[in-house]
Amino acid sequence: MRERFEVEATDSGYRVLDPNGAVVATVERRPQAFELVRGRGGCVRLQWARTVIGKETVPRDFSATHGGYRAGRIMTVISGDQRGSWAWFVNGKDPDTGRTGSFSGREETKDQAVAKLEAVYTEFIADADK
Fold first, then answer.
1. What is the pLDDT of residue 93?
2. How much of the chain is helix, strand and coil, in % rounded to 5?
């Protein structure tokens, strides 16, 4: 599993923190921070919460955000030959460039789905300037 870095907004840009909370760098733009994390072989830790639809919490369904922007979602597969596995979806809009993306897959466990979604989202934002 990749190391998970924090990327947080500051008054002058974005600060990258290693898994122990030490400052690695401060950069001007969000894609630069994600690219730095990717270059270290890591991924950006997203903020996770239970998915709420129509004021109801959805069982075994979690949504991810970064800096208040939607990053994706994971949920258990409830039917078919992969029942019990975890589906992940990165679908959203890069807040810096307006570029949209949609990626998805399935993993055996919740932890694997979290790791995959965070890795794919890190790649998506790191490539924003390309």
1. 78
2. 20, 45, 30
Number of domains, the chain: 1
User: In this structure, are residues 30 and 40 in contact, taking their beta carbons and an 8 Å threshold?
Assistant: no
Please give the helix or strand (H or E) that residue 94 lies within, else none. Answer: none
Predicted local confidence at residue 120, as pLDDT: 96
What does DSSP assign to residue 124? H
**What is the average per-residue pLDDT within 99-110?**
94
Tokens of 59: 């069982």
Assign 28 to helix, strand or coil: coil
Whole-model pTM: value is 0.93
Q: Give the residue numbers spanning the domain of 72.
A: 4-126
